[in-house]
Amino acid sequence: MANETDLMERIVALAKRRGFIFPSSEIYGGLNGFWDYGPLGVELKRNIKQAWWDDIVRRPPEGPDGGPIEMVGLDCSIIMNPTVWEASGHVTGFTDPMVDCKECKGRFRADQLFVVQFVSAGWEPQSSKDEMPPAITAAAVASTPEEAISLEEPSNTKLKAMGVGRAFHTRAWLIDEYRRTMADDKSLPEPPCPNCGAVGSLTEARQFNLMFESYAGAVQNEASKVYLRPETAQGIFANFKNVLDTQRLKLPFGIAQIGKAFRNEINPRNYTFRSREFEQMEIEFFCHPDDADRWYTWWRDARYAWYVRHGLTSDRLRLRDHEEDELAHYARACADVEYAFPFGVSELEGIANRTDFDLNAHQEHSGRDMTYFDEEAWQRDAGQYKAENYGGDKKAAKQAANEAKQGMPYRFIPYVIEPSGGVDRAALAFLCEAYDEDEAPDEKGEAQSRTVLRLHPRLAPIKVAVFPLVKKDGMPEKAQALYRACREQMTAFYDEKGAVGRRYRRQDEAGTPFCVTVDGQTNEDGTVTVRDRDSMEQVRVPSEGLVAWLQERLGRA
Ligand code: ATP
After folding, report:
1. Atom 1 in ligand 1: which residue has the minimum CA distance?
2. Which amino acid residue places its CA nearest to atom 18 of ligand 1?
3. Can you give the pLDDT at residue 1?
4. Which of 180, 200, 226, 272 has the maximum number of C-beta atoms within 10 A of its C-beta?
5. CB 256 within 8 A of CB 49
6. pLDDT tens digit string along 384-412?
7. Do 116 and 170 form a contact (C-beta atoms < 8 A)?
8. What is the C-alpha separation between 285 and 279, in angstroms, rounded?
9. What is the tens place of the pLDDT at every residue in 118-147?
10. Where are the strands (E) in 225-309, listed by range?
11. What is the largest CA-CA distance in the chain?
């Protein structure tokens, strides 16, 4: 298979060719960080969201004790009262460090801007002491030092123009680190802009807030300023009491939401991975503080298993526990489900124990009570507060009971475990994992290379394609009838144009698990050929039982 850069290019080309993903508003040159999902892409995304919703809200998995867990859904507005974002800390803290180029006006994330040192063309070490080459410095926007070095390979035309011959003793510093080193080592040159190459044009890093701003209503001033939500989670916290009061829920329980989120990312990159508009699938699972560690581990493992179940079975999928010093100040534990994309290892979903931080913050900013009263615990202990235990003093007993009810173990702010994933990143990982190239025989039986998307049947945009072998002998009519029967139960596609081998190939690229062909034998015995996308094996199935046959196999996967 191709190298990783090549592989990504092939996946992007396939996604465009088959109608999975298009650049947004492409006819006007597109818009950086925005993408459109085409006819196959929208089905893939809907299938991911549906699988998640069914597995999380409708039929949640059994909890650590083997009992059912309680989950409900929510669909909040994208624009909310801006105080939500003050309470959550986003107004002051949802920032990335940004570096500007004064020449080309390019903007870069300082924590992803590496300065790489390369060798001048023709330089050779003259002796064993002569280890460090004269520095030619280049800058690259990359997530890791390794990526930075690989981006700026000496074949790179920009480097060639700078007189760089080949990589030697390369090293990548984060720009801040490089500047600190520059202060000690005056021989180091100013870093160039990774976009235009201008030297000395990069500013110091400053904090840039990632929230998109707008105004609600006709008047545009500070009072009417609103934000497009940068995450769906805060809508869940803001509705915690509404859900609790209307749904007769008891701890532990979870609230789930799928919806759009917006972040004005400084460098949208890596295809859809870092977009400015994307969709999230988030769960806030509320539990007793004493149970939070157990629920955290359970959710972390359950969410990892969900990706494996849907086809991310290779060692490209990883679960990484955060080190203590990586944790946000309010988080007790955090893990990332990561995927080794062709462009690097990156996060698909984060699972965090956020303690009572969010509900506490909303209680403080809204003045509304965010506590939970554990009625069961109270009923168990209420007997302790009888008057006889207070020397017959009813008033004292009542007062003691009221005081006890105000705090632990009866009234408290629940802890929350948050599994927070992105639909677009999941879709991209499923596409990358599914992409494969192998060989298939053509009409003459000669092996030809084929591209196939081995998508999990639950996620595949089209479940079955139906073809007449040729456009005569009543085959199109029979195939049409079967196509209509299939379409009642699953996404189906009808195609009668061109050689059947080529029709198979198109469906392989679309990830369609089964192709059904009506052929000469159908007229004789009523059976059709069903071809399996992955094994390319063909079996004959009676046409009357075809839909049930397909449903059984699609459901079983
Ligand atoms: P990153 O560090 O990669 O920017 P994050 O840690 O800021 O991600 P979270 O705030 O935890 O991400 O958001 C939860 C999920 O939302 C992520 O795991 C990811 O799947 C998705 N997500 C976040 N930002 C983007 C984006 N710009 N484009 C696409 N998906 C995103």
Report:
1. 347
2. 349
3. 47
4. 272
5. no
6. 999 999 999 999 999 999 999 999 999 99
7. yes
8. 19
9. 766 565 666 655 555 555 677 788 888 877
10. 225-227, 253-262, 277-287
11. 99
Q: What is the 207 CA–ligand 1 centroid distance (Å)?
A: 18
> Rounded to an integer, what is the distance from CA 222 to the centroid of its chain?
33
User: Strand pairing of 333-341 and 344-353?
Assistant: antiparallel
Nearest ligand 1 atom to alpha carbon 263? 27
pLDDT at residue 351, as a whole number: 98
Smallest CA separation from ligand 1 atom 21, residue: 422
The answer to whether 503 and 467 are in contact (CB under 8 A) is: yes
Contacts of 52 (CB under 8 A, 6+ apart): 258, 281, 306, 421
Spatial CA neighbour of 459 closest among 503, 494, 429: 429
What is the strand order of the sheet 538-542 is part of? 492-494, 464-468, 514-518, 527-532, 538-542
Backbone CA torsion sign across 471, 492, 455, 547 = negative
Distance 422 CA to ligand 1 centre (A): 7
Which residues line the pocket of ligand 1, CB cutoff 6 A? Answer: 231, 263, 265, 274-275, 278, 280, 347-350, 420-422, 424-425
Nearest to 55 by CA among 283, 236, 235: 283
Ligand 1: atom nearest CA of 268 is 27
Beta bridge partners of 532: 514
- Chain centre distance of CA 343: 15
Position in ligand 1 atom list of the atom nearest CA 265: 27
Residue 146 confidence (pLDDT): 79
CA-nearest residue for atom 8, ligand 1, is 347
Nearest atom, ligand 1, residue 422 CA: 20
Hey, whose CA ends up nearest to atom 27 of ligand 1? 274
Which pLDDT score is estimated for 172? 84
* Ligand 1 atom at shortest distance from the alpha carbon of 346: 3
**Residue the block writes with tokens 């290779």:** 314
Q: Determine the Cα–Cα distance for residues 40 and 120; give it in Å rounded to an integer.
A: 48
- In the numeric block, which tokens belong to residue 224? 């009417």
290 Cβ partners below 8 Å, 6+ apart? none
Say if CB 235 and CB 77 are below 8 A apart: yes
547: left (phi > 0), else alpha (psi -120 to 50), else beta? alpha
**pLDDT below 50 — which residues of the chain?**
1
| CB neighbour list of residue 239: distance below 8 Å, 6 or more residues apart | 74, 76, 255
Cβ atoms within 10 Å, residue 124: 9
Q: Which residues contact 131 (CB under 8 A, 6 or more apart)?
A: 125, 169
Which ligand 1 atom sits nearest the alpha carbon of residue 420?
A: 14
Task: Kindly report the protein residue whose alpha carbon is nearest to atom 30 of ligand 1.
Answer: 422
Q: How far is the CA of 294 from the centre of ligand 1 (A)?
A: 25
What is the pairing mode between strands 253-262 and 277-287?
antiparallel
Q: Which two tokens stand for residue 84?
A: 């939500």
Ligand 1 center–CA 425 separation, angstroms: 8
What is the rounded CA–CA span in Å between residue 175 and residue 114? 5
Smallest CA-to-CA distance from 366 within 208, 239, 214 is with: 239
Q: Is the peptide bond before 414 cis (omega within 30 degrees of 0)?
A: no
State the distance from the centre of ligand 1 to the C-alpha of 235, rounded, in angstroms. Answer: 17
CA of 303 to the centre of ligand 1 (A): 16
